[in-house]
Amino acid sequence: MTNSNDSVTLRLMTEHDLAMLYEWLNRSHIVEWWGGEEARPTLADVQEQYLPSVLAQESVTPYIAMLNGEPIGYAQSYVALGSGDGWWEEETDPGVRGIDQLLANASQLGKGLGTKLVRALVELLFNDPEVTKIQTDPSPSNLRAIRCYEKAGFERQGTVTTPDGPAVYMVQTRQAFERTRS
User: Residue ranges of the N-acetyltransferase domain (predicted)?
Assistant: First the structure.
């Protein structure tokens, strides 16, 4: 059990984290929501697709979530505008960021760590004055993720169709974030 005062921090992911990320991405509680069984990556896939320099070319910034000095998860943010492959084609605001994240250990689910991770990521992103809105797109059946985002200040905006199928479109604007800070 984690202490309610423990905070989740984020550090930039490095290539030294790729083997750990590979192992995480193959855990059943992650596979369920991160591409499904048919998308289980090999170590070579992870080394090719998640290398920070490769992600940077796609405007994706990868992070490792830490709790008390130990890695507990992965997070990524990306510029929504021009993200390609059928994602967010109607987006016109260059200040919108999309996010995705996971907790590595199934035993840590349902204990508030996901919310702490999302809040840490949101705060980090809104430290950039160019960021206007943060959005995410959980599966409608991923009720745990939807509740986590709501606890972290995101609001449902409806259902959207993504290349991965239907998703709950959830956002947090800079204005809403700043209201929680004052």
Answer: 8-175
